[in-house]
Amino acid sequence: MSKLLVVDSASEVTPATEDDINDLWSFLAIAAYEADGFAARKESIVAAHLKN
To answer: In this prediction, what percent of the chain has a pLDDT beyond 70?
Structure first.
């Protein structure tokens, strides 16, 4: 699995952790016009962008 990156409060790019996964799903849901991260996980085209 490739490492995902998130930006911390100091604007330093760091690898995403397991604690970040729900936030990443929420961002994907917004981008895909889905109700929430759980709905986004059910859409294979959306889910292909984030594996957990």
So the answer is: 75
Query: Structure pTM?
Result: 0.62
| Residue 28 counted as domain residue | yes
Residue 9, SS3 per DSSP: coil
- Asked if residues 27 and 21 have their Cβ atoms less than 8 Å apart, the reply is no
C-beta of residue 39 within 8 angstroms of C-beta of residue 50: no
Structural domain count, the chain: 1
Whether 52 is in a domain gets the answer: no
Q: Which domain holds residue 12?
A: 5-47
CA distance 37 to 8: 21
